[in-house]
Amino acid sequence: MPFSSKVFRNLKDSIVGVKEQDEDPLKATRLAVDAYSKDAKALCQTLQAFAKANDELDGVRGDVVKTAKAFLLPMDQQGGLQVASDPELTKVGNLFSSEVDSISHSKKDTRQLLDDAVSEASAMQRRLDDLTTAFNERDKAAELMSHYKIKMQALSEEH
Length: 159
What we know:
The chain has helices at 6-16, 27-72, 87-158. It contains three helices and no strands. It has 159 residues and is an all-alpha fold. It comes from Perkinsus olseni.
């Protein structure tokens, strides 16, 4: 019986996959883990995209500050700052400067929290993947038990 060999069973498992147990007492748990795993994966991807966008925004913020500084604080011929003659322009410059400082401090305060959230989400995703792998290994073990029970019955009937 070459088709009942271990090599063929392993080949079948790698191509088709391991069949879930018919009467699995953990079926509801497995479904909940699968749904939670999809949500955790989406959360992890969203946090990573947010961190990337935050980094890109930081680069753009630097360009905006440079451009605004050149407009609000023009340089004279010797490279020194010209005193703005318009008091409204000075108010705008001061307000802009304070807002940029506020954004910069806020980013520094939240960056570590964002990195921690990405790390925790990745760790949770790995744990859920391990749990899914454990469910699959459990199914494979149950399938092997069933296979060998049938073989044992056949042997006991022969003798």
